[in-house]
Amino acid sequence: DHRTVSTHMSAVRATTGFATSARVNSATRRAPSSHRALSSRASRAASGTISSRPIARVAPCVHRGRPLAMKVSAALPPAAAGPAVGCLFETLPFGAFIGAVLGGAITSLASRLWSKRHLSNATVTHADTPAHRALMDACPHFSEPYDAVDVLRNRHACTIVASLLRENLPIEYQREVLRMPDGGHVTLDWPIAVPQYPGEDDVKNTMASLGAVVVNDDARQRAEERTAKRERERMDDIIAQLQYGASAKTKNGRFESVGGAGDSASSPDGVPGVIGVAGGGGAGGCGSGGTGCDVDFDALTPPFRRAIPDQGRTVTRKRLAEHWRTIPDDAPVLILMSGIAGGSHDKYLKHFMRRAARCGYRCVAFNCRGTANSPLTTPQFYSASFTGDVRAVVDEIHGRWPEAKLFAVGWSLGANILTNFLGEEGESAKLHGAVAMCNPFDLNACDEALQNGFFGTVYSRAMAKNMRALFAPHEHLFQGLPNYDNALVANAKTVRDFDEAVTRVTFGFDSVDAYYDASSSKLAIENVSIPLLVVQAKDDPIAVSDAVPREVIEKKTTPGCVVLVETESGGHLGWTAGSEAPFGSPWPDVGAMQFFEACRRGVGATIGNQSDGQSAGRVDEADADAEVERRAEVEADVAVEAPAR
User: Fold this and answer.
1) Nearest to residue 389, comparing CAs of 409, 352, 414, 411?
2) Which of 170, 282, 587, 632 is disulfide-compatible with 577, CB 3.0–4.6 A?
3) Which residue, 79, 85, 108, is CA-closest to 9?
């Protein structure tokens, strides 16, 4: 029936991020599907239902729409029903038993709590150019109301509840430890297995039964079969070349090492250099960067006692190569950067990774030095201003897939680092688009907020505790550094204390305030030369609203469309709104995915002196086929949902 179809299409929108508003007049945006699913009783109770209420169009410069100040009751979205129970008990002893016994009651209570929404308009700020307008027209999600779960509208409740109870997706990673030029290491976590959205298979069947145009994965499956066949036929040669370098030559049927790092043209799996070493791996393409390939690996058989082969260049590389080959070489690559002391385990990162992966992106979580159980091998941690590691990772990935478009998304401190990196790179940036969420922008202003009030102290102490936990296993590396005092680290109670004891010292700043001033990405925003979406919550207790450089963003007409979207509530990385609220993906994720897809098509890539905007949203000819497929998806979405309206 119509309700079943609407439920299935919710999964489509959750996966692709494209709602049916693609065919809605640009002057009036429809409310999200969760509001269109209002019960008839609730619809009658609300005198002006949001589904028919005109929503102000995103203005060219600044849209500061008046909050709708409206509460509605909607049925609990299907995506939120499961997590409403599971997330509450998954970390408790006998959690499964408790959930089984109380699941029905909890779900009923949750349905009442989560269905009460407070609607408000997002504030959108950007320069008045056709390119900016074209870019925002390609992101209809941000023109729809922000439907916050009413009981979680308090900024602290939203921040804390989302952090603790957001669904933890079971994503399986394969880790790559990447050696940096200075000898330090970062880790790249490549998702090997990403869970589907609930009802995702049912969506395709429903669309097909209705005669809708369905864009399936047949082409990709055929490509996977071909690459799997080639993999079986050539794996022995691949492993041998990976052991002895991509430029290795055979002698009497055996491979032997030669000097020089490999390149993408000669590497058997299309990846330059050696796994785990940024920049090619050094002489002979060895993982150690030296002459490790001189070992006769063929003579090594288990059990290993006197010597052991570098399994990072065999087993790990083989598994990654098998995964990489399931994705087309020109598929867009998305680098995900977490917040302070975070990493690939963060729940909000996993939710966005699933969304991007289901849209065909090659995803990788970038873990800073020492985070997410990454090894710290030199007396150098990471900081809000250090961009060297990001640059090395971007260069390495660009070298592996030179024909692919690169994108990045960062949260909190990761957003600040990403913005600083983009400002430093300017027009030389290899990325085609980026998203920054909850960017602190002005670290001194945010530090002042953390020093004031009860909750500020709670947040600062919690983050400092996480930083000390990351640092503790490696503290012996820092002994003997000038101005380093281990006692200060042990007694660091706040983020400022930790930065005084470690960050300022290791990166050579005279004071913490000087470090915060130099690291604040508000100084870099003007030099960003690629499309950048910034999403903030006005009530963020950590990345405070006063730190956001609105005037700079509004006046920025130089190359690089920067757009600021601010929600009335959302806390810090909470955003408990949308069809998956409160325990699913944050509200901005759908719009951020629409933004990446627009950048992928070339929308907003050029600002210039356009008067008619004809080139603002131009699609590259190379992306013509992909554009046809994406339009087919939207048309199918409209065709299927039409009977339910």
Assistant:
1) 414
2) 587
3) 79
Residue 572 known to be catalytic:
yes
> Tokens 């499956």 appear where?
221
Which listed residue (497, 539, 540, 589) is catalytic? Answer: 540
| Residues ≥6 apart with Cβ < 8 Å to 13 | 19, 33, 579, 590, 637
Out of 572, 579, 589, 637, pick the active-site residue. 572
CA atoms within 13 A of residue 490's CA, in its CB half-sphere? 5
Catalytic residue among 33, 43, 288, 412: 412
Amino acid at 176: E
d(CA 282, CA 292): 10
Q: How far is Cα 291 from Cα 307, in angstroms, rounded to an integer?
A: 15
Amino acid at 261: A
Cβ atoms of 549 and 536 closer than 8 Å: no
Active site residue 412: yes
In Å, how far are 12, 464, 546 from 328, measured between CA atoms? 22, 42, 43
pLDDT along the chain (645 residues), means of 10: 46 42 32 35 35 34 45 44 49 57 65 85 94 94 94 93 92 91 92 85 50 47 64 53 45 40 44 50 34 47 72 72 83 96 95 94 95 91 94 93 95 97 95 97 94 90 92 90 90 94 93 95 95 96 96 91 96 93 92 96 68 41 49 43 35
pTM over 0.90: no
Burial of 247-259, coded b for 16+ CB within 10 Å and e otherwise, reads bbeeeeeebebee
How buried is 537 (Cβ within 10 angstroms: 0-12 exposed, 13-18 middle, 19+ buried)? buried
Closest CA to 344 of 372, 309, 385: 372
Give the bridge partners for 173, in sequence order. 191
